[in-house]
Design goal:
Blueprint: H1 16-31, H2 41-69
Helix pairs in contact: 1-2
């Protein structure tokens, strides 16, 4: 469980995929109750999938860099 102890720093530009990831899943969940976004399910899932992978890769790179500094 050492990965929970590694400290990382993030720049504002590195938060963009994370914010897109969160925003897209909120829209998906919100559209479950509204028909307005019904036609956008596939593009939203694509954005969500890409940004989840992107965020996890950035996080893992930062964890490795933080672990090497310790």
């Amino acid at each position: 469980m050492n990965f929970l102890k590694v400290k990382t720093t993030w720049s504002n530009s590195e938060f963009i995929p994370f914010k897109l990831c969160i925003a897209s899943i909120y829209i998906i969940l919100g559209s479950y109750f509204h028909y307005f976004f019904l036609n956008y399910y596939i593009p939203l899932f694509i954005i969500f999938g890409i940004t989840v992978i992107w965020t996890v890769v950035l996080w893992l790179k930062k964890m490795r860099a933080g672990a090497q500094k310790s």
